[in-house]
Write a structure and sequence with these properties.
- The chain is mostly helical.
- Helices cover 77% and strands 0% of the residues.
- The protein has three domains: 66 residues, no CATH class; 59 residues; 70 residues.
- Helix 6 packs antiparallel against helix 7.
- It is rod-shaped, with a radius of gyration of 45 Å.
């Protein structure tokens, strides 16, 4: 009668591996026969040893047992070297990925600030535009208001003339655009002057009328 390979001190894992046959259990799903508990961690030697001893399916354990010592040694050295090289590259790529992530976060924060600044500027512009449209539609420009707008237009005209002289030295096409703007401003100035004069004349006429 053949002697049983199972010894009196064998663990549950030892019994599972020693009693394995492909004919009897080859198609059975592998359930590691370890004693690990869900609260265990790999800070303890016993948990690590149990995981190493019982994690592989019996078929792979038998395949490795059938190999020569030189074959196992060669596989161990190659796998450890490749694992070390792969870990080294993973660490390098991880550092690069972290730096790129940090740069992206800074770029994102800058974009968000730009968006907020743009929204504030747009709101201020919309407010000024609405105010301008209201003033334009009401047409309640008094004589003082016309004089103020005239001064602004004259200052703008003077600035455009100065800019136009500089532009002429550099770009003929820009010179043409500036000249057209100046012509437009001159028309606006003439129109505003006319309104001011009419307003002044009307005021003077009203002052000389008998009561």
């Amino acid at each position: 009668m053949p002697q049983s390979p199972i010894g009196p001190k064998d663990t549950l894992g030892d019994i599972s591996y020693k009693s394995y046959t492909e004919e009897a259990r080859g198609d059975t799903p592998h359930q590691p026969p370890w004693g690990l508990k869900q609260k265990d961690t790999f800070l303890e030697f016993a948990s690590c040893r149990d995981w190493f001893l019982n994690s592989l399916p019996p078929g792979e354990v038998n395949r490795q047992r059938a190999r020569t010592h030189n074959g196992l040694y060669h596989t161990y050295v190659v796998s450890k070297a490749n694992t070390h090289a792969a870990n080294h590259q993973i660490v390098r790529e991880w550092r690069t990925m972290v730096r790129e992530r940090e740069e992206w976060e800074r770029h994102r924060e800058r974009l968000l600030r730009h968006v907020k600044d743009f929204e504030k500027s747009k709101a201020a512009f919309d407010e000024e535009k609405a105010k301008f449209e209201s003033d334009r539609k009401s047409e309640e420009w008094g004589r003082e208001g016309l004089q103020g707008k005239l001064r602004v237009a004259e200052e703008l005209l003077a600035k455009e003339r100065a800019d136009w002289k500089k532009i002429c030295e550099k770009d003929n096409q820009r010179m043409y655009s500036a000249r057209a703007k100046i012509t437009e401003l001159e028309g606006q100035v003439a129109e505003l002057k006319g309104k001011v004069e009419d307003e002044q004349a009307a005021k003077e006429h009203a002052e000389v009328l008998p009561l």
